Amino acid sequence: MNDKIKTGKEVIDEFFTGIMDIKGIDKKTVEKLMAIYNEGKLTDINIQNAMGQLLQEELSMAEEKDGKN
Amino acid sequence: MAKIKSIQVSGIRGVKDPLQLNLNNKSILIFGENGSGKSSLTDAIEWYYLDGVKHLVSEETGSTKGRGSLRNLFISASEEAFVDIQYSDNKLNAIKTIDNSLKVSTSNTTDDFKKYFLATQSENLILRYGDLVEFIIASKTDKLKRLQNIIGFSDVADIRDLLKKSAGRIARNIKAANYDNQINAHQSVILINLGQNAYTDEQLFSGSNQLIKTLKLDKKIESHEDIQIVLKEIEAKEDSALIEQISFFTKVGENLTEIIGNIDNIQLSYGLYHKAYTELRKDPGNIQKLQLLTLLKEGRSILKNNVTKDDFCPLCQQEKSKIELITELNKRIEDLEELEKEKVKLGEMGQGLKDILRVNINMIDGLLKEKYFKGDTQSALFGNIKIIKASLNAFSVELGKELVAKDSIQSPDQLQINKKDISKSIKDVQEKAKALTEAKNSNIKFQIYTKLFHAITAYNQYQVIKNQLETLTKQQITFELLFADFIKRQEEALNAFFKMFSSSINDDYTSMNPDEKIENIKLAPIKDKNDDLVGITIEYEFFNKTKSPPTAYLSESHINCLGISFFLASVRAFNKQNEFLVLDDVISSFDRNHRARFVKLLTAKFNDYQILLLTHERGFFELMASDVKGKEWLIQDFKWSKENGVRIEEDKADIKGRILKKFQSKDKESLGNDIRVYTEKVMKEIAFNIEAQVSFRYNEINEKRMAPELLDAVHARISKKGDGLKDKVNIQKLKGMPMFVANVTSHDNEFTESIEDLAAIWKDIEGTIHAFYCMDCKKFISIEYFDNVENKIRCGCGKLTYDWKK
């Protein structure tokens, strides 16, 4: 009877394994999230920092692109 | 899966001297009266696995998890207290010790053991009476938390919360920044200067080319770089001060446009906050009651941890069932937690509005520092902007007021920001910028430069805002999608678990309560209005009607059955490392029928498990003992004495073995006591077999017969009935031996006899016993084998025979 039951770890592992296949997601956002998860540092403050960092990277890239135009 | 081969406990709780249980992977039934210290064994196992003992934890000992009360009071400081468990898998054998400074160490440091030990942390190995109904009467949120802990779903719940929180926070940031408003402000500057909006580079370049057309330059603008080249080409250094001034007015206009665009949002948000605040203040008593929440939770924790043993309220000392008390506390705590949730929600609303206000106030502070405000020339504008800041600050002041404050916060109509005045200021600064630009009417180049410069500045700012919004929106959508996917997975897994677990609980419960109208017991998820899983309840059908919760309808005995069923379901589902479990006094509230069915449940459905079953109830012990006889269970009595702490009631073969060993090694320590205990045991059997009469005593007190009383009874009986025996044994001589000239209070006295004296005593005792005991058939002579034709008493095989009067 236990075979059908997934442990919490299995649920989490399966989620992160298939995370890139979820339709409509932004891959860069997910990559940042995965990196923190893989380091075992998935906390609220680390997510905030990573998302802030991603925003800055995106703005720098856009600025660079505009500069080239 | 591991079973226990042997367990030795020393210096832990009531166990002073080493207590050894040689289980050899078998189940054991242990009887011990209240105070016999049998639960010391359970405490020892709990500490071994969990590094603490829950029922020993109090506020004072919280940090040590009860370890401060773990060591036996009578062992010396230098003695180590320990638990030594030998398993069916030798690799796991380990001794865990705790010294006088409460330093703990474990002998097995292998990776195998570490892995095993870590995996056991989520297993359910011990059930005590005090914990029996913990899950059943827990609040819905505690039930969810507890189950999630057991099945390792705490991490799942944490990740789910993180995803939800992240999506929510990004959405709030987007709202607080009011990006649309910022975009409008920048576009309005572009429109004023370029004569058209510019949302794309193409629109910007096209508008710019249109603007510079009259200058008839050779250059056509096709890139941002081209704009910079053109600006450089038409720039006049002498006009820089004027341009700076125009920029100042443009910036003021732009910022005020942003602020005015936020005002509706600020006022709407404040209106909602005011409504929620007023609603919560309607019953001030409720808010006051929130201060009780911590006290009620602490009270519940005291009851759950069995700090008080009897059924009474520890606060008012009124007699009341513990289950009822906990159930009532759960209800009050749940009500207050609902209220607290509303309070937290209000706090979040307030924080959201504070964030919006902060952005706007910061913008104003930035403006007020502008150098053009230093002199008196712009004092009117300066004053107007300060008034806007004061209006915004007024909202912040109201948001800082406590719910329990004497006066309520101001109503939305009392806090108005004068949009007309702001609009007027915007118009003024735009006109000033225009006037300055047109001051050099004849200088077309200057006008075009100024317009192009402000248009490109606003466009760049617009681009930054647009990119920020795009990135944040992508992040928000991503977190929302991840959350949706995750809760789907979590719910699927939880539903599968609920189904399996419910079925297991239902099976065990109904096997202990057959022919009752309680059916289909199941764990049911509880969701809030946002469809979020917030708790679990237990439902069942009673006369085909769904009922919940169990405490409202079931008797204590039935609730306890449910508690046991829950524990057993947990064991089946989650114990992957260990195939043993400890049940400590779990049937106290059961009637005879429930006890019998519980015994059957254990022996029928859990016969693969090694069970350590402890009880203080003689009736249940005897019932269980008769059922498990022949099923390879061990049966043991625990005793407690001040001198030795908890010890096992040994059988006579064990004592005899020890006596012979001591003679062999010439160790006379406690040898006299051992001989006395052994003789008492054998004399009881002899007295029973020849029907020697002792005075009447009730139940277990009957067992407490001292050797002199038994020797007297045997002597009187054989004097009367057995002529042959009378000549063969000298009971009076035994009675005069030093270890029998004693009473109950000197039970474990030391004797001063030499080993030789003790050997002589032992020889006499053995000789006497052999007169009653046949070495061939291993049976005592007994009235059961009385030959009433020959008038002889015999052993089982008939080799040992004596005359015996009718």
What can you tell me about this protein's structure?
The complex is a heterodimer of chains A (69) and B (806). Chain A has 69 residues and is mainly alpha-helical. Chain A is built from three helices and no strands. In chain A, 68% of the residues lie in helices and 0% in strands. In chain B, helix 8 packs antiparallel against helix 13 and helix 19 runs parallel beside helix 20 (707-721).
Rg over CA atoms of chain B? 43 Å
Quote the average pLDDT of chain B.
85
Main sheet: strand order of chain B: 7-11-12-3-13-14
**Terminal-residue CA separation of chain B:** 60 Å
Query: What form of chain B results from the Cα inertia axes?
Result: elongated
Question: SSE layout and pairings?
Answer:
The complex is a heterodimer of chains A (69) and B (806).
Chain A: H1 8-17, H2 27-38, H3 44-68
Chain B: E1 4-10, E2 19-22, E3 28-32, H1 38-50, E4 81-87, E5 94-98, E6 104-106, H2 111-120, E7 126-128, H3 140-150, H4 154-177, H5 179-194, H6 201-212, H7 224-234, H8 240-281, H9 284-290, H10 293-304, H11 322-368, H12 379-399, H13 419-439, H14 444-512, E8 518-527, E9 533-542, E10 545-547, H15 556-574, E11 580-584, H16 592-605, E12 610-615, H17 618-628, E13 634-641, E14 645-649, H18 652-664, H19 671-690, H20 707-721, H21 723-728, H22 731-735, H23 755-772, E15 773-774, E16 779-780, E17 782-787, E18 792-794, E19 801-803
Parallel strand pairs in B: 3-12, 3-13, 7-11, 11-12
Antiparallel strand pairs in B: 1-2, 1-4, 4-5, 5-6, 8-9, 9-10, 13-14, 15-16, 17-18, 18-19
Helix pairs in contact in B: 3-4, 4-11, 4-14, 5-8, 5-14, 6-14, 8-11, 8-13, 9-11, 10-11, 11-12, 14-15, 16-17, 18-19, 19-20, 19-23
In short:
By secondary structure, chain A is mostly helical. Chain A is built from 3 helices and no strands. Chains A and B meet through α1, α2 and α3 of A and α4 and α14 of B.
Any descriptors?
heterodimer, A: 69 residues, mainly alpha, 3 helices, 0% strand, elongated, B: 806 residues, alpha+beta, 6-stranded mixed beta sheet, 5-stranded antiparallel beta sheet, 23 helices, 19 strands
